Amino acid sequence: MREIRKITDDAPRKPNYAGWYGLRETHVSNRADELAKRHYGRVSQVLDELNRSEGYELLAVGGHDEEVPGFLEFLPRQLRSRGVGTFNVDPGTATVAQIQEKAQEIVDRFERDEERREVSDVLERAASGRPAAIGVSPTLWAASFAAIQTLLVQEGAVVPGVVCDNCGWLGESGAACIVCGNATHSTPDVIDDLVETVIDDGGTIDHVQADTELTQHLVAASLRFPVPEEPKAES
Ligand SMILES: [Zn+2]
């Protein structure tokens, strides 16, 4: 996360400025309103341009709590749908670091929620008999068939295993490959080889930091098609 641009507009005079007549007060607050709207419009335009030129996936909006909803109304619909949260900050005094920290909190929360959704999706897939693999051994087996569409990996998971250089089979153990019979070599982290295999086969990888059932299984995958049952490994 970095600062890209700063957009400042003339601050409106105190909106509650009281003149001699109520009329004047209304006039000042109308003007404040107008200045605020102009500023919102400009910021929203820059965000839109930025989206067209560079693109971004998530949008967190910070500002005074009472002003943020008014600003959100200015956002084009496709940007509003990227919104993952808002935070309270004083744009006049906040440092870039403070803004980054608050925005990061929102993005982190969004990502953990997304991870939880992905894990429950794949578990539900398996429970309802659709193609899925849960746990290290079934997932490694599914990878031998290039069947993995989406691989979920628990952050920090490390599992020693074996690799067949001849056909690419991955297993937790076994001196000989159960697919082609070649001698295997051991690897300190077969999850690493699994990730590479899935990428080579055109699948996607999602690392999961959230505390979910995946902490017990370490890996799980949605499969493109069902795979035959895994033979018992010989060691
Ligand atoms: Zn092999």
Can you summarize this structure?
This protein is an alpha/beta fold. The protein is built from 7 helices and 9 strands, in the order αβααβαβαββββαβαβ. A 4-stranded mixed β-sheet has the order 3-9-4-8, with helices on both faces. A 3-stranded antiparallel β-sheet has the order 6-5-7.
Can you walk through the features of this model?
This protein is an alpha/beta fold and 235 residues long. It contains 7 helices and 9 strands, in the order H-E-H-H-E-H-E-H-E-E-E-E-H-E-H-E. The strands form 3 sheets. A 4-stranded mixed sheet has the order 3-9-4-8, sandwiched between helices. It has a 3-stranded antiparallel sheet with strand order 6-5-7. A hairpin with a 6-residue loop joins strand 5 and strand 6. The two termini are 49 Å apart. Bound molecules: zinc ion. Zinc ion binds next to loops.
